Task: structure prediction
Amino acid sequence: MSSWIPLWLHKLGSPPTFYRFAGKLRPWMLALAIVLGLVALYGGLVLAPPDYQQGDDYRIIFVHVPSAWMGLFIYGVMAVSAFIALVWRIKLAEVVAMESAPIGAAFTLITLITGSLWGVRMWGTWWTWDARLTSELVLLFLYLGVIGLYHAFEDRRQGARAAAFLALIGIINVPIVHFSVNWWNTLHQGATIRLFGPSTMSGSMIWPLLTMMVATKCYYVFSLCSRVRADLLALESGKDWVRQIAAGETAR
Amino acid sequence: MTQFLAMGGYAVYVWPAYAIFLVVLLADALAPVLRRRRVLRELRGRLARQAARQQRHADTATDA
Result:
């Protein structure tokens, strides 16, 4: 490996080191996610005023939008690690890509269901085949496809490579989801939170939304740590370090 | 409190949305914990069988 990659990063790529690192990181990320999540819920459900048009129904936004962001963000992480896995054949990158898929699928499912619950009163329909909703459904199917393909092979690493290809091809859907509200006429509203330029939303509604965004990011790291740990144990079950862990846990 | 729970008449939509969020994430958090336990249990079983087999081999070797 190239010399510009620091040694500690190189070491982190080894399964036993990453297993221990993820084990230390996991509880902190969970605690952070819970604390920030509770603060965001309090801000969103109690402190934020009702919307002047939508009343209290808009409060679905505090779970809907952060979940939608996570659905896209996790796809990005999955695609980048899938690329690394395909080019450099790093086992850990494969595992990170494959174990990101179920978390992304969970967030996308939440997005679709909460969106449906929101749409039924505001649009008068649970579902419509418009650009944003359809591309979001395609995102869910891409996640499910990656999970399915990964488990369809007898050889886990072969399955990971096939699924990594699918994940890379599917990245085309991410900008489609994001820009669908600008490119097509859709029932779904445009973005109100903007990175560039002023957001069209009151500050009392923005801060719970952004806090929940950070909370879901922490949750993702937590869930990824647990999943990667379990997967590494399964993949490396013939190795000594895994045997030591298995033996150690009987003693307890 | 009742006013809070009523969500301005939208309680049937707001609370299920939050429930889905929590339930899906809870299931997502529990799945790897159970999987890790299962993987280690299976590995221990495999190691125990292996040890028993080696013991048997060692016994037959000393008998002969």
Notes: Chain B has one domain: 18-63.
